[in-house]
C-alpha cells in the first residue's frame, strides 16, 4: 500500500547505446515514499507504467544491449538537430568550380 505522504519529482535523461549507437530520451515521474516503518523507498514511472530505476538494469530498446551510457537530458535531441542541419548546410556551401 502506498503512503499518502509522498514527494513527486520529474527527471529526464538521455541514453546512448554503446553497442548499436541508438539514442533516446525519457522523462520519469519519481515518487519518494515512506514505508510503515518510516524507511524511504522510491518508485519510478515512465508515463503511467511503473519501471525500474533508470540507473539499474538498463537495456537498449533497439538491440537489448546492456552497454548504455546515461547523460543529461537534451543531448540526443541536440545530436538529432545537428544531423538534420548538416545536409542543409552542406548544400549551401559552394562546390568546386566547373568549366563548360
In short:
This protein is an alpha+beta fold and 100 residues long. Helix content is 18%, strand content 38%. The chain is elongated and about 55 Å long.
Strand order of the largest sheet: 4-3-2-1-5
Bulk shape:
elongated
Low-confidence residue ranges: none
Number of domains: 1
Helix and strand succession? EEEEEH
> Total number of β-strand segments?
5
Query: Which percent range fits the helix content?
Result: 10-25%
Distance between the termini: 80 Å
Protein name: C2H2-type domain-containing protein
Key traits:
alpha+beta; five-stranded antiparallel β-sheet; C2H2-type domain-containing protein; about 100 residues
Verbal overview:
By secondary structure, this protein is of the alpha+beta class. It has one domain (7-84). Helices cover 18% and strands 38% of the residues. It is built from 1 helix and 5 strands; from the N terminus they run E-E-E-E-E-H. The chain has one helix spanning 75-92, and strands at 7-17, 23-34, 40-46, 49-51, 68-72. Strands 4-3-2-1-5 form a 5-stranded antiparallel β-sheet, with helices on one face. Strand 1 and strand 2 (23-34) form a beta hairpin. The longest helix has 18 residues, at 75-92. It is elongated and about 55 Å long. The chain starts with 6 loop residues before the first strand and ends in an 8-residue tail after the last helix. The mean pLDDT is 82.
